[in-house]
Amino acid sequence: MISRALTNLAALGFFYRLVRRTWGERVWSWRQTCADCHYFVREVRAIHPQVITLEVSPADRVKAKRSDYSWLLDHYAICCYRKVWDEGHAFDPSQRHSVVSQINRRGKCFFWRFRPGMMQPATLELQKSETEAADKYRARRLTFYGLVIGALALIANAWVRIAEHRHWWPFE
Predict the structure, then answer these.
(1) 79 FRET partner, CA 20 to 30 A, in 6, 30, 46, 71?
(2) Which pTM does this prediction carry?
(3) Cβ(43)–Cβ(75) under 8 Å?
(4) pLDDT in tens, 138-157
């Protein structure tokens, strides 16, 4: 009996490793990096005080994931639009690839998946509404769970009252 359970467990482990190896990065262990984030932008910082923010194209994002920053000209600075990090402030250029493509930012910043062509102010509003909708869904779900628990408690109470009335077991 035990050997059969261990065999089944080993087969399950083999299946898990096979699926993990096949689909791993795409399904279960998707990392949230700046290269995949909508807030990854480049800024033109010239002599005049106005900063011009430009979107990083999908092709440039792919190059950034491969540590190829040939698309980044001298007058550009890459940064996070939400100011989580900025290449212009105490930034070590040798750490650029690490910051952009290797650090997993899941749960540590304002990550929002890149949507080509969408402007940054619209992104801020949509992310805000998406977060509010998720919070409302969570509140509704918890309310539903509370109602289910309350209904089960009422059913259990009714069953105990019926059992007490019919003397199915002694109550004292």
Answers:
(1) 30
(2) 0.64
(3) no
(4) 999 999 999 999 999 999 99
